[in-house]
Amino acid sequence: MAAKKAFETFSKSLIKEVQRWGCMKPTGVSLRYMMEFGSRPTDKNLLISAQFLHKLAIRISRRAIKLETLPYGLSQKPAVLKVPDWYLDSFRDMRSFSEVKDTNDEKEFTQMIKAIKVRHNNVVPMMALGVQELKKGMDLKIVYENLDEIHQFLDRFYMSRIGIRMLIGQHVELHNPNPPHCVGCIHTKMSPVEVARNASEDARAMCLREYGSSHDVNIYGDPTFTFSYVPAHLQLMVFELVKNSL
């Protein structure tokens, strides 16, 4: 399998450990718990958070393993071959950090996971490029009728990626002074109308740059209604929907 070509640059002992950790089950975390825990970012709580995040190696290993056996030969596409290397590098970094015992360890660990987050910034465009490479070599009928397996994998893969980046981002943000009504990445009084308006304006601006004109976008909803959520996530969802519509 082509993904083994990516794995061949790593030691057999590391690959064996990836397989072992990939069999473990990750622990889920609710948004409510993250808000309650993050509302008290003491040194003790930050240490507990880092100790929990040390087990992100489970999620990272599972993603690396899945990338090894993608359907229709997607694992063999040049763009996709780069992605498992990033996950294996991150897994190795996590496992090399043997234990988070005190505040100094926590600070060092936080810098490491920040670097991991940056390392994976280009995962989405590289996977998208791999899918484009795959489609170019396939019969059009197969492309439009039989790629459900690819779509299902990508849905799960991206959801897992969002989860990993959210957990890292939340921990990192807890080190910074929180703006009003914010707990890390979470806004406790987010206005969906305001976020939708900003996202729509961003999409219109892109449309104007590309085509010289853009339809108006009307936002309907109660501007006083708020709830707890991650504004950046809703911003991206609305932006993509409106951009595609425009």
From TrEMBL:
Official protein name in the record: Protein-serine/threonine kinase
GO annotation terms (biological process): regulation of glucose metabolic process
EC numbers, comma separated: 2.7.11.-
Pfam families: BCDHK_Adom3
Ranges that cross the membrane: none
Native organism taxonomy: Eukaryota, Viridiplantae, Streptophyta, Embryophyta, Tracheophyta
Root EC class: transferase
Record flagged with keyword Transferase: yes
